[in-house]
Design goal:
The chain is mainly α. It is built from 10 helices and no strands. The protein is globular.
Length: about 325
């Protein structure tokens, strides 16, 4: 394995870790553990910022700042920064050796631009006090980074395409639609999480004892507003949170039915049985974790696993799309 491929693989593994850790930070309410950026109260580590954190704790003992939350937040920043450096190295390497790489420097440079934008979103997440649109965009950016690194890794492995890849044209449209549906569902899941609407429907399969409970879609899906507030600055009503959660559930049903059909097609297509089983297994895991979040009252471990499972399911669809487009 060349150094270039090793860099890509390391970045891919780290990107998954950053996505999972970002979910843990968000779900453990540590997103404002250090209320400035990029340091923690202007210091490199929470240890160096201990006096400032103690002063904040003395003022607001139940506030968003604590030593534990500060370390969670900064660990996420350290890993994200390391990922940024790896992507920079990949982009520079791809540019310098552009005649030797399999697809040129275009994709690595796109990744570098995405990483820079991700850093800006990370800063705005803190400075704009967890504004749902910014936090959701940051989550989607992390998933996009993971997906593009996965595509780059598959492209640069250089393995010869099996003969059955050439007869996979009938799967192209279905695979692309599956990827798009999963991406939309991840976006909706991010909107649920960033609006703290995961338990807006505390029962399952009904929601507040009804298939169609009272819902306020206009307030729930107004993008430009602060956390927990309407666009006018009032308290976001439960009906708005219910609309967010209910929409995510309905989309989950659509995705499950469609991917279930796609898995059956894959299992009947020569050479794609393993891919079909992998996607089907990840889909079943995601459905189980999603239901478990509601029935168990959103345990942190289950919620983080649901986010990590979404990243793995998305990655499997990226791999499938790469395969059916490869000659």
């Amino acid at each position: 394995m060349t150094t270039y491929r090793k860099l890509i693989l390391a970045a891919l593994i780290l990107a998954f870790g950053v996505v999972a850790l970002g979910a843990y930070v968000r779900l453990s309410d540590a997103g404002l553990g250090c209320p400035d950026w990029p340091g923690c109260y202007g210091k490199l580590t929470p240890h160096l910022a201990a006096d400032a954190i103690n002063a904040e704790l003395a003022t607001r003992p139940d506030g968003p700042v604590s030593h534990e939350k500060a370390w969670k937040e900064m660990l996420h920043r350290y890993l994200a920064g390391t990922l940024g450096l790896l992507v920079l190295a990949i982009a520079l390497w791809a540019w310098r050796e552009r005649r030797e790489t399999r697809g040129g420097p275009g994709l690595p440079l796109l990744l570098l631009g995405l990483i820079v934008f991700q850093a800006m979103l990370g800063m705005w997440t803190v400075t704009l006090l967890l504004k749902p649109l910014i936090v959701s965009s940051h989550l989607l950016g992390g998933m996009a980074t993971l997906s593009l690194l996965g595509w780059l890794w598959l492209r640069e492995r250089g393995r010869p395409a099996p003969a059955y890849y050439a007869s996979s044209d009938h799967l192209r449209g279905g695979a692309l639609l599956g990827l798009a549906l999963v991406a939309v569902q991840i976006g909706l899941g991010g909107w649920v999480s960033t609006n703290y609407a995961a338990l807006a429907c505390p029962d399952f399969p009904l929601c507040h004892g009804a298939w169609m409970p009272p819902m306020d879609f206009e307030q729930g899906f107004t993008l430009h507003r602060n956390l927990g507030e309407t666009a006018a600055g009032g308290l976001l009503p439960l009906t708005a949170l219910t609309a967010i959660h209910w929409t995510h559930r309905v989309m989950a049903l659509i995705v499950t039915l469609y991917l279930g059909w796609l898995v059956l097609r894959l299992m009947r297509s020569p050479g794609h049985l393993g891919m079909g089983l992998a996607i089907g297994g990840l889909l079943a895991l995601q459905v189980t974790l999603g239901i478990g979040n509601v029935m168990l009252g959103l345990p942190l471990a289950v919620a983080v696993a649901h986010n990590a499972g979404a990243a793995l399911l998305l990655s499997s669809l990226v791999m499938l799309n790469y395969r059916v487009r490869r000659r």
